[in-house]
Amino acid sequence: MRLLVTGGLGFIGSNFILHTLEKYPDFKITNIDAGLPGSNVKNLARLKNKKYSYVKGNIINKKIVDNLVSRTDVVINFAAESHVDRSISDPRPFIDSNIVGMYSILEAIKKHKKKLIQISTDEVFGSLKSDSAHEKFPFNPSSPYAASKASAEMLVKSYVTTYDCDAIITRCTNNYGPRQSPEKLIPKVILLAEKNQKIPIYGTGKNIRDWIFVLDHCDAILKILFKGKKGESYNIAGKNEINNITIVKKILNIMGKSKELMHFIKDRPGHDFRYSLDSEKIYNELHWKSTYSFEKGLERTISWYIENKEWYKNISTKENDSGFLETR
User: Fold this and answer.
1) Confidence of residue 202 (pLDDT cuts 50, 70, 90)
2) Would you name the residues annotated as active-site residues?
């Protein structure tokens, strides 16, 4: 099978490529990535495989996308601007990548009659006081980032209905694991704790997210690739709802660091309190389930960052005005 992975130098995309080629060495994967914030060439530096090729390019470039889609079987779109704080300060790049880029891909799969798996987010449903969002739950995005991802979903749905495109949407809860940018919660806490530096925490630290180890997410996408139904959407959850302050304490405990490193800072604008997905559909219909407990995944993640200092040695972990994010 020939796969076109967009945004494959990013956290989830790179893990997906490595995991897929390990499980299915006969697959051929082409990766297009523009090298924007969140991408890291080191993520796939060790990949010396004739089944893998990299194209530097942006998905808003319709000519490049059309050419690549014409030579593949399935497009898996990980490419997205995903830093919520940056979307608040400047929404334009998020409109370009997450909406205009989505349009470029949809036009190409319509023209060449290819399959698309669009990787979306639980943030399209907004903050939930109780219960969990199922696949038909109404959108209620809070940030420009979340709104751009919701818009991309609506575009995908319209191309399925209007043009009979073969497309599937996935929404996942917070990922964690190796190769995640230090601007995100778990890696930033690990790297700051390793250096015995202050760890910034938004507000009270009581904001809740559901967490899933990145390889569980990758397996869910593969399950959807083989068994998912055209036009459907699937929620993917780890069933690990934990607040931020508990996660920070768990990391400090595993690393043997003092809780005095925690430093509370002013909350960010529009900070959603709780995200939660109902993933019974993928559990019951496709028979997927997560395999990593949060503790097992967290220990593996901490070990990876401790053992791979070369990967992040030139990446700053200094506290800035916006603290850090808890999103993927």
Assistant:
1) confident
2) 122-123, 145
